[in-house]
Design goal:
By secondary structure, the chain is α/β, with parallel strands linked by helices. It folds into two domains: 2-151, Vaccinia Virus protein VP39 (Rossmann fold); 156-195, no CATH class. It contains eight helices and seven strands; from the N terminus they run βαβαβαβαβαββααα. It has a seven-stranded mixed β-sheet with strand order 3-2-1-4-5-7-6, with helices on both faces. Helix 2 (29-41) links the parallel strand 2 (21-25) and strand 3 (49-52). Helix 3 (56-63) packs parallel to helix 4. The mean pLDDT is 89.
Length: 197
Amino acid sequence: MTTLETGSGASTVMFAAKGASHTAISPVPDEHERISRYCDQHGISRERLRFIAESSHTALAGTWQPEPLDLLLIDGAHSFPFPVLDWFFAAPHLKVGGRVLVDDAYQPAVNVLVRYLREHSAWELEEVLGHRTPCFRKLTAEGISFDWDDRALGRARFDYLPPSRRSVAAARYWLIERTPLRTAAPKVAKVASRLSR
C-alpha cells in the first residue's frame, strides 16, 4: 500500500512494520529520529519510510510529491483550518476505494471535516476505530463541489450577529433566500421602487 499521514508517532511505526510505502509529514524532526531508532532497534525496515519535516499545510502544497494513495491518516495539527487543509490537499490523490482515517474526530476543528465527509456523496463512513477515529472510503473521483451544501456542515447560522439582529437575518434567509422568492425579490424591489416615485 501507498500511505500518507499528517503527524507521526506509533502509527508511523505500524505503517513501516506492515511494509507500506509510507510518508509521514510532521514539523518535529527529533520525533522522526526517535521513530527511526525504534524501528532499527526492533528490526522494522525503514526502506519504504519517508519523513517530511515541515508543517503539513506547506508540505502538501509544495514539498510532497503527490502519488496515488491507498490510505490517508489525518492526525497532524488539530486546530482550524489544518485538518481541512490536510484533507483538501491530499484527498484528491486518494484512489477510489481508498480510505481516509480522521483521528481525534471529537475535537471541533477536526469534527468539521468529519461532518462534511459524513454527508458528502463521494464518501462513505465505513467504521469508527476505537471511539475517536472514523474511517471513510472514497466512492468516486468527484471533486470538491463549489456549491454550498446545507447538509454537509449543518444549518445556516447567524451567531456572528448581535442577538437583536439574528432572528431578522434568519427569517430573511429562510423565507426569501431559500425559496423561489429569492429570484422574485429583486424584481419586486424594482417595481416597488418605481411605484414609490
